[in-house]
Amino acid sequence: MNKLHEILQKKFGHENFRDGQQEIIEQIIEGKDVVAILPTGMGKSLLYQLPAYLMKGTVIIVSPLLSLMQDQVEQLKLLGEKRVIAINSFLSFQEREMAFRHLADFKFIFTSPEMLQNEQFNRALRELSIAYVVADEAHCISQWGFDFRPDYLRISGWIHSLKAVNVLALTATATSEVVKDIKETLRMTKPFEYIHSLDRPAIAYEIVEVENQQEKMKWILGRVISTEGPGIIYTQSRKKTEVYATMLREQGISVAYYHAKMEQSDRILIQQQFQQGQLDWICATNAFGMGIHKDNIRQIIHDHIPTSVAGYMQEVGRAARDGNQAIASLLYTSSDVEQTFYVAMQDFPEEQDIHFAYQQEYSEVEQAETTSRILAYWKEQLNEQETIQLFKQIKQKKWQDIHSFYLMIRNDSCLREQLLHYFDQALIERPHHCCSKCKLNVSSILRNRTDEKNRQDEMNWIDRLNILLPS
């Protein structure tokens, strides 16, 4: 038995590696930069955890969300690893000061792109022997860095300050364009690339066009009340997450809502309750789901057109991690394209915002925090006209992404084939339950709920929706 398999069995309790895992780990140990694209549930965390036990030094993991960091820390602790910490806003001032003084005691340090801009933290990091750096959920560099978290783009300078440290970039979805952004931002040198097929045969795709928003909500509520989960309902509106949860709870569904404006401690609690089976359904914005360790999610429901194919694949990919059949349902109306674009553009700076920022009049104008943060970064990088042109291009790309997805769900071609084609991949074998364009038999996939609540007379959902969502 070689050393890799010995650690795999003794430390992680697995007999064999999954496809690509050993190959990737060997490249990391050899000191190479690596880009690894593997679907959700393929064991990406093992790729940065196992090599650490064969290499000297500390592993720095750059993670996008506080809840994701905390979950990853807990997962390592369950494996018996005590030398792990998350450096983030959860720490009090005293805890952070103590952590900075004792960073060398930790084997795994999780942190955020924003925290990497803290000079005191950086000084402490420069004193360490760093084995390698991990960019977890690396697609966020491209998808979020240009949009609302410019500190992702500042990672480039931080990587450069570390000098000769190799980098591992992990994600479940990335186009060739996103991979290019990842390589450039992380200053990778001829990285080894491993790209697994993104097809998830156990997930069937259902597309449903409805007349209006009330019909959409009625359909979703009927589906959840009559069929078994666990599941996630994704919506663009924070208010709708609460409305869905309220109505479902009244019908005996174990459910909670989740969005970015909630207290972080509440979000982590809800995530843990869902993972542990105390909740059957989550009604959420796209703030929920990244890093969720729940194998038996049977349904993903979208009540809108997502802003990108990559984002959609990330969200539906949270189902069927156990390999058993699941279904991803997307409901839309003819006006959803414009609504999705409007939501995507809410915090984007207009030309007037950019002009004010460069004329140093920005402080006199009240703007969204996100807009201010974006412009503060680009003002350091580009002149006014270059920034105006950049955001014109970003907006155009956003519209193209949304419209492309709309065309996918509207045409008659197999949705699974189109989704894979978007990532320059081909469908090797069509599963029995493919998509609604391939004559999908939904009733043979979903199990009916049979509790007492389900047998009661249905209420008038339209009247209830008019009360909860007045025009």
From TrEMBL:
MF term (GO), any: nucleic acid binding
UniProt EC number: 3.6.4.12
Keyword annotations from UniProtKB, A to Z: ATP-binding, Helicase, Hydrolase, Nucleotide-binding
Tagged with keyword ATP-binding: yes
CDD domains: DEXHc_RecQ (cd17920)
Residue ranges of every copy of the Helicase C-terminal domain listed in the record: 216-373
SMART domains (alphabetical): DEXDc, HELICc
Enzyme class: hydrolase
One protein family per Pfam: DEAD
A single Gene Ontology CC term: cytoplasm
Limits of the Helicase ATP-binding domain: 25-192
Residues that span the membrane, as ranges: none
Gene3D superfamilies membership: P-loop containing nucleotide triphosphate hydrolases
InterPro entries: DEAD/DEAH_box_helicase_dom, DNA_helicase_ATP-dep_RecQ, Helicase_ATP-bd, Helicase_C-like, P-loop_NTPase
GO biological process: DNA recombination; DNA repair
Protein name: RecQ family ATP-dependent DNA helicase
Source species of the chain: Psychrobacillus psychrodurans
